[in-house]
């Protein structure tokens, strides 16, 4: 995938590592909680997650090694 991005768009568009997760932390309205994803990627506390449709997905994502 990385090679095709470099070939088609250029080296400036090289993607960072991509991690496939079982689900995304979404609110009940379906919006992705970017704050939670940022906290997970920076090894920080995700904060208040009770508004998520499936809060258990946060723990599942944390278990994945990046």
Secondary structure blueprint with pairings:
Blueprint: H1 2-8, H2 34-41, H3 56-63
Written account of the structure:
There is one protein chain. By secondary structure, this protein is an all-alpha fold. It has a domain at 22-66. The protein has three helices and no strands. The radius of gyration is 15 Å and the shape is elongated.
Shape: elongated
Largest sheet: none
Give helix and strand order, one letter per element, not per position: HHH
User: Unreliable runs, pLDDT <50, ≥5 residues?
Assistant: none
Share of helix, binned: 25-40%
The total of beta strands comes to 0
- Report the mean per-residue pLDDT as an integer: 89
Q: Terminal Cα separation, in Å?
A: 18 Å
Beta-strand residue percentage: under 5%
Integer-rounded radius of gyration: 15 Å
Helix count, per DSSP?
3
Briefly note the structural class of the backbone.
Answer: mainly alpha
What's a concise summary of this model?
The protein has 66 residues and is an all-alpha fold.
Defining key terms:
35% helix, mainly alpha, 3 helices, 66 residues
């Amino acid at each position: 995938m990385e090679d095709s991005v470099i070939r088609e768009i250029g080296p400036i568009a090289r993607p960072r590592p991509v991690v496939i997760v079982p689900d995304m932390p979404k609110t009940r309205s379906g919006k992705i909680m970017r704050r939670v994803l940022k906290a997970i990627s920076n090894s920080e506390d995700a904060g208040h997650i009770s508004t998520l449709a499936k809060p258990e997905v946060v723990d599942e994502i944390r278990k994945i090694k990046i």
